[in-house]
Amino acid sequence: MTRTATLPAGFADAIRRWKLGHHVFHLKLIVMNSMLVELHVACRETRWTDADRLLGDLAHLYDAATASMKYAADFPPHAYRDLIRPSMGEPLLSPGFSGTLNRDHGQMLAHLRELRAMLRDRKQDGTLPADTRVAAKQLWSAQARNRRHHMLICEKFVPGGESQLQEFLNGQDAAEG
After folding, report:
1. Nearest Cα residue to 34 out of 102, 103, 111
2. How many domains does the chain have?
3. Which end of the chain is more exposed for a tag (fewer CB within 10 A), N or C?
4. Which domain holds residue 56?
């Protein structure tokens, strides 16, 4: 006879939301990386109409990623504290686990940094069309909204606290000092 663990009320929903929201976010991240590669090519080849479309699509996709993140975190803080956060530590995961260590996320941020520099250079030399500036500003606004919402979620689950990565790094500093 197999025994099945029974989770406290609301924990099963928290797990489902956390996993589904993160899986959906990751799919969006992969699409964003593909679009960013295409966008870099469009900018290098001065295909500004394509670049404007891609910038707009990326802004919408960033907002959709934010919605996925909000969905993933729509459960009570005690479920995060008592179930989700402990599942992201030892022995299940390495100490200092962080979503920022995700390779695809790192690639996306690198692509965005390169894009920002490329567009800044084009703006400075006067070759960036006004429509492309507007479209890029929409993307940067979507990125800023995403970061704000992520910070709000972090504060909801760990008020005034540190991420697991920050805790790990601070522990390393203390051990060395």
Report:
1. 111
2. 1
3. N
4. 11-156
